[in-house]
């Protein structure tokens, strides 16, 4: 290897070493010069917590949160203990104030009821309950069917949309007893309704058959619907023919000939002028009525 080539290699090595040193210093300064994001220890769920669960110490743990805290996050266990869960919490999820019931309200279903609302239990079967797919947090329409007052026997039972866009609080099985005293499972769905809607549901539960119709939670429209009679199902959508009794009631009454009442002609009036000396007077006489 000649002397010129050795000189070139030496210079290249020195340039590479100097460049590496400069890059190392620049990167090092940037890493040490950037301040680290602050961390805060917050309360998180130690396991999955279902709606209505009353939180105990074993249900909680703590974790480090890097950066700014979410709105409403709780940082001490004392602010979480003995409060009910109103929205399902998952393991490791930060516990927010909005996911818990108010302090002192306890747990269970009552803690999930918003002020001014009521929880109304509705008994359904697997089919009526949309084959068991009605779960807490979903929204349903309530249909009722039966023979309402004033419904013609020719039309048959009617079905009507009683309530729309109703939130489901809970869905499960309740143990009741049959006529022989034996236990049996009954599907029970608790719906979040207003007091007026609760009255309608209570009346419908005793007098009609209830069916729940599952709907998309993003669909908040409440279209106006009309009731449908059984007779309409077999007439291609056209209104069913009216029964003979209904036809007779609806038929207009036959027109009666006008009654002509003769009235006697008014009697004629005669005016008589009387001249008695300087006195002047008038007398009126009517024509006698002929019978």
Structure description:
This protein is of the alpha+beta class and 291 residues long. Among the domains are: 39-111, Type Iii Antifreeze Protein Isoform Hplc 12 (Alpha-Beta Complex), CATH 3.90.1210.10; 117-244. Helices cover 18% and strands 29% of the residues. The protein has three helices and ten strands; from the N terminus they run αββββββαββαββ. It is elongated. The chain starts with a helix and ends in a 5-residue tail after the last strand. The relative contact order is 0.10.
Helix content: 10-25%
Distance between the termini: 166 Å
Number of helices: 3
The low-confidence runs, each spanning 5 or more residues with pLDDT under 50, are 127-131
Strand content: 25-35%
Which oligomeric state applies?
A: single chain
Could you give the count of β-strands? Answer: 10
Question: What does the overall shape look like?
Answer: elongated
Largest sheet: 6 strands, antiparallel
SS class: alpha+beta
Nearest-integer average pLDDT: 76
Q: What order do the helices and strands follow? A: HEEEEEEHEEHEE
Over the alpha carbons, how many angstroms does the gyration radius reach? 45 Å
Draw up the topology in text.
Blueprint lengths: L2 H31 L5 E7 L14 E7 L51 E7 L14 E8 L11 E20 L5 E11 L1 H13 L1 E7 L12 E2 L14 H7 L18 E8 L2 E8 L5
Antiparallel strand pairs: 1-2, 3-6, 4-5, 4-7, 5-6, 5-8, 9-10
Keywords:
291 residues, alpha+beta, Type Iii Antifreeze Protein Isoform Hplc 12, two-stranded antiparallel ribbon, 3 helices
Short description:
With 291 residues, the protein is of the alpha+beta class. The chain has 3 helices and 10 strands, in the order αββββββαββαββ.
């Amino acid at each position: 290897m000649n002397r010129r080539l050795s000189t070139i290699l030496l210079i290249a090595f020195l340039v590479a070493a100097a460049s590496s040193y400069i890059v190392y210093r620049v990167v090092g300064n940037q890493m040490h010069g950037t301040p680290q994001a602050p961390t805060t220890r917050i309360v998180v769920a130690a396991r999955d917590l279902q709606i209505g669960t009353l939180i105990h110490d074993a249900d909680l743990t703590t974790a480090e949160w890097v950066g700014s805290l979410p709105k409403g996050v709780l940082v001490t266990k004392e602010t979480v203990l003995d409060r009910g869960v109103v929205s399902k919490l998952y393991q490791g999820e930060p516990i927010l104030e909005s996911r818990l019931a108010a302090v002192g309200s306890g747990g269970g279903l009552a803690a999930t009821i918003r002020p001014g609302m009521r929880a109304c239990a509705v008994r359904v079967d697997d089919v009526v309950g949309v084959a068991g797919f009605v779960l807490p947090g979903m929204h349903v329409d309530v249909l009722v069917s039966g023979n309402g007052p004033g419904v013609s026997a020719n039309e048959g039972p009617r079905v009507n949309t009683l309530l729309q866009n109703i939130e489901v609080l809970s869905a499960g099985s309740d143990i009741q007893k049959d006529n022989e005293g034996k236990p049996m499972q009954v599907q029970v769905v608790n719906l979040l309704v207003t007091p007026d809607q609760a009255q309608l549901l209570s009346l419908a539960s005793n007098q009609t058959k209830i069916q729940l119709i599952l709907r998309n939670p993003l669909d908040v429209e409440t279209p106006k619907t009309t009731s449908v009679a059984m007779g309409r199902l077999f007439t291609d959508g056209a209104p069913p023919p009216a029964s003979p009794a209904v036809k007779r009631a609806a038929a207009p009454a036959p027109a009666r000939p006008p009654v002509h009442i003769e009235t006697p002609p008014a009697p004629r009036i005669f005016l008589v002028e009387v001249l008695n000396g300087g006195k002047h007077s008038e007398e009126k006489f009517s024509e006698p009525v002929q019978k």
